[in-house]
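Notebook entry, cofactor series.
This is the third protein in the set we're modelling with a bound small molecule. For this one the ligand is glutathione. I'm keeping the input format identical across the series so the outputs can be compared line by line later. Sequence and SMILES below, as received.
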Amino acid sequence: MLTLHDNLGSGNAYKVRLILSHLSKPFRRIEYDVTTGETRTPAFLGINPNGRIPTLVFEDGRVLVESNAILFYLATDTEYLPDDAFVRAQALQWMFFEQYSHESFIAVARYWRHFIWDEVAASPERMQTLNEKMEKGRNALAVMDAHLKDNPFFVGSSYSVADIALYAYTHVADEGGFDLTPYRHIRDWLARVAEQPGHVSITKSEFES
Ligand SMILES: N[C@@H](CCC(=O)N[C@@H](CS)C(=O)NCC(=O)O)C(=O)O
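Returned structure with ligand:
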């Protein structure tokens, strides 16, 4: 069985739980507290030298890290990865966008506000950085909203790994202080994603071993 080194608060790890649920693939879950360095122990660094979850371990011992690489692998030969090479590359385009222009601002703002707020609020430098991240996060939301004005999903006309990657932190962006009210097309898309068969919430841990 697959083993997911996981954290229930993490959007990156949620991407993996979500596609596994869509695919009805059972997995074992091991929870780590990412606020106390549990992914930085020698034992965990032996599995993922980068010290981060999600980390997926296959039955034969192979290890795959980086949420969007895991999504890409698990979606291969399924309806969640487009067949057409150009559309598949467009899915990757949005997944790279997610990691560089979205997750680094929206996920980090959420982590700071929702998980380690006292530490951040006590530091004027971090509060300044937070404001900068909020502005860049709003830029990413504007790019997404403009795309979704004319498209039901991020690539092609159906739900794919690109939507899973972008849904993970967008649907909890309010926990990072982002108000989604102005982004009507994003809100409609969030509702469409939540209607997909096999959808689970970010905190659902039914596969826990
Ligand atoms: N680019 C990576 C980011 C993974 C990541 O930042 N994981 C965080 C939780 S969301 C983590 O493990 N943090 C613990 C640490 O850095 O010690 C991915 O997409 O999987």
